[in-house]
């Protein structure tokens, strides 16, 4: 992982998961692993994907991922990523969600995470711990903004989602995919809602948005990204992206150029 900030005397941070920062190359991945403490990972530049058995959470530069203690998870980075890892001591994790999530990063949360994962030493004893309390307060008060793509358990549904993972731009209808998977459109529609908590259209849209974030982070134009990820025109892509991410693709790329790490 990135260069670590040394824990201050008396810190309860586990030594095997220190807080720190570092630049990750495009496509860099970390194999599944677990931690005794909680973990926040913030991409100050670039895009981060965190995967658990429950699915994948994607965090562009205006989001932060949260993984509670004990959850096996892996990471993948898209674009050259300024990765910031912040350990949350186990005794403080009860104040946060008990499942992996993605949260919006506001100005105060961003500056606190950047400070805690930087090289600057504590100005006064206990300063880092007090700033960590600010981070927890910000997360506790911030509505969850989940770019979560859940994964299927049912074999028929898994066959369909595997086809779409292999080719997110595939234009097939649910009925057409069902014929390949050996299940009716009605059965698959029911499984999408009961297992994944969303419609087929919504699941495929989020899958495409995940891939779109990677393309945009690499510098691909909005129009080319729309075509590569399965949208028939840039306007429909912009609407879908804005609905899921909360900003347009153009403003997302602009933020990548002017974010904290680029200044």
Provide the fold topology:
Blueprint: E1 3-4, E2 20-24, E3 29-33, E4 38-52, E5 55-59, E6 63-67, E7 73-88, E8 101-104, H1 107-116, H2 127-141, E9 148-150, H3 155-166, H4 174-181, H5 185-196, H6 200-217, H7 222-228, H8 234-245, H9 249-258
Antiparallel strand pairs: 1-2, 2-7, 3-7, 4-5, 4-6, 4-7, 5-9, 6-8
Report what the structure shows.
The protein has 263 residues and is α+β, with helices and mostly antiparallel strands. It folds into 2 domains: 3-141, Regulatory protein AraC (Jelly Rolls, Sandwich), CATH 2.60.120; 150-260, Arc Repressor Mutant, subunit A, CATH 1.10.10.60. It is 40% helix and 23% strand. The chain contains 9 helices and 9 strands. It has helices at 107-116, 127-141, 155-166, 174-181, 185-196, 200-217, 222-228, 234-245, 249-258; strands spanning 3-4, 20-24, 29-33, 38-52, 55-59, 63-67, 73-88, 101-104, 148-150. Strands 1, 2, 3, 4, 5, 6, 7, 8 and 9 form a 9-stranded antiparallel beta sheet that branches. α1 (107-116) runs antiparallel to α2 (127-141), α4 (174-181) crosses α5 and α7 (222-228) crosses α8 (234-245). The chain is globular, with a radius of gyration of 19 Å. The model is unreliable at 1-16 (pLDDT under 50).
């Amino acid at each position: 992982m990135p260069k670590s900030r040394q824990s201050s005397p008396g810190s309860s941070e586990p030594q095997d998961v220190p807080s720190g920062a570092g630049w990750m190359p495009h496509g860099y991945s970390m194999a599944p692993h677990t931690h005794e403490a909680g973990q926040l990972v913030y991409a100050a530049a670039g895009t981060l994907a965190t995967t658990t058995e429950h699915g994948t959470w994607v965090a562009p530069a205006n989001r932060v991922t949260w993984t509670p203690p004990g959850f096996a998870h892996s990471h993948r980075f898209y674009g050259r990523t300024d990765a910031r890892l912040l350990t949350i001591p186990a005794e403080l994790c009860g104040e946060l969600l008990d499942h992996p999530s993605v949260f919006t990063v506001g100005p105060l949360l961003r500056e606190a995470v950047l400070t805690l994962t930087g090289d600057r030493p504590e100005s006064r004893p206990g300063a880092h711990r007090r700033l960590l309390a600010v981070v927890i307060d910000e997360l506790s008060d911030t509505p969850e903004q989940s770019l979560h793509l859940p994964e299927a358990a049912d074999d028929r549904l898994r066959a369909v989602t595997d086809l779409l993972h292999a080719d997110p731009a595939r234009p097939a209808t649910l009925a057409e995919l069902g014929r390949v998977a050996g299940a009716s459109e009605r059965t698959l529609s029911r499984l999408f809602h009961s297992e994944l908590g969303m419609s087929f259209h919504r699941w495929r849209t989020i899958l495409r948005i995940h891939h779109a974030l990677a393309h945009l982070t690499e510098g691909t134009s909005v129009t080319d990204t729309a075509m590569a990820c399965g949208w028939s025109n840039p306007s429909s892509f912009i609407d879908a992206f804005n609905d899921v991410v909360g900003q347009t693709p153009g403003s997302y790329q602009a933020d990548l150029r002017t974010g904290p790490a680029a200044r």
